[in-house]
Amino acid sequence: MIHSVPVAMEPTLLPAAPPRLVHERGVPAFGMYRGIVPQLCWRSLPLPLLSRLTRKLHHKRWQYAAFAHDDFLIGVAVVDVGWAGSAFAYLFDRRQQCLLAEVDFTGAPLLHCRVDNQAFGDATFRRGSDCIAFRHAGTRLELTINTRPLRLAAHITLPAANSVLAAIAPANWQAHATHKSGALTCSGYAECNGRRLPLDACHTSLDASNGLLARDTSWRWASAHAGPLGFNLQAGYMGDAENAVWLEGVPWRVAAARFEFDAAKPLAPWHIHTDDGCVALTFTPEGARHGDKNLLLASSRYVQPVGRFDGHLVHPSSGVVYPVQALAGVTEDHHSRW
């Protein structure tokens, strides 16, 4: 049942996204917007000499997609961290509550990995016969996974610009930008262990991020989308700069997010809320993917549970309460030295 609660303030729709990340006078376009910044370029951002010399090592960018279904969840990403490239993909069976397939690759930038400076653009990781590739093709994003454990071919309908969240923020070194979509339609299939899973009933979401981040970066994150409802919440290197709810397909800014969970028992329930009361959720994990890598020059430690969210979202302007019931999604507790 949808009802309303009193609203202390009257937030307005997010303004239109700027034409660039950095204005002509070198001032970064910090803020939260609706729309897409056409080119993700930081070159005109004024930096001290040492920072200019090391900028390429701090330039982190990735393209990520999630496919949420009643029976399974698929996550896939291609990541360029400046001095190295990586990619991962996994298929989680929500009925059996286990990973059916998982791949995780590391390679050299340019040689193995390329990520365009464009939101929802081309991104490819290729090493030998293994390949994960996003390809921007007009009104859709084509995604291909060609690995032995998991194969996938999907056409994702790109979002209308005014439904996209664009956030530009100081972050933890210089600046960072991210574009997030709500739930998108798609077509195609995934193949794993001799099974073919159609993707037509999935709720797909995209994340395209590009920024100049610190060598040590940590975050907690929660995301889930279905139909006109969804949310993206983070506590970490961007503060509350990308915290939003999608209601009737429109993104609205919400306040700082609090993640209450037991790091030693990440499969116990998580409780997530925002300081403005617009988000109150319980996340029940069904399983998780995790990793703890130490590559001498770099390290990564994370746990990413897959499960369901229950609770409610409150419209920041009207006060209308939207129930959240069994919404499939993910949380994450992550630290990278990259």
CATH hierarchy: architecture: Beta Barrel
Fraction of helical residues: under 10%
CATH homologous superfamily annotation: AttH-like domain
CATH fold-type name: AttH-like fold
State the CATH class.
Mainly Beta
Please indicate the count of domains.
1
Span from first to last CA? Answer: 46 Å
> How many strands, what sense, and barrel or not for the largest sheet?
10 strands, antiparallel
Q: How much of the polypeptide forms β-strand, as a percent range? A: over 45%
Q: Any low-confidence stretches, pLDDT <50, length ≥5?
A: none
Helix-strand sequence: EEHEEEEEEEEEEEEEEEEEEEEEEE
InterPro entries: DUF2804
Pfam family, one: DUF2804
Protein name: DUF2804 domain-containing protein
Map the helices and strands.
Elements: E1 3-4, E2 31-34, H1 49-58, E3 59-68, E4 72-80, E5 85-93, E6 98-107, E7 113-115, E8 123-127, E9 130-137, E10 140-146, E11 151-157, E12 165-169, E13 175-180, E14 186-192, E15 195-198, E16 203-212, E17 216-226, E18 229-236, E19 244-247, E20 250-253, E21 257-260, E22 270-274, E23 279-294, E24 299-314, E25 320-337
Antiparallel strand pairs: 1-25, 2-12, 3-4, 3-16, 4-5, 5-6, 7-8, 8-9, 9-10, 10-11, 11-14, 12-13, 13-16, 14-15, 17-18, 17-25, 18-19, 19-20, 21-22, 22-23, 23-24, 24-25
Which structural traits does this protein have?
25 strands, AttH-like fold, 8-stranded antiparallel beta sheet, DUF2804 domain-containing protein, 338 residues, 10-stranded antiparallel beta sheet, globular, mainly beta, 1 helix
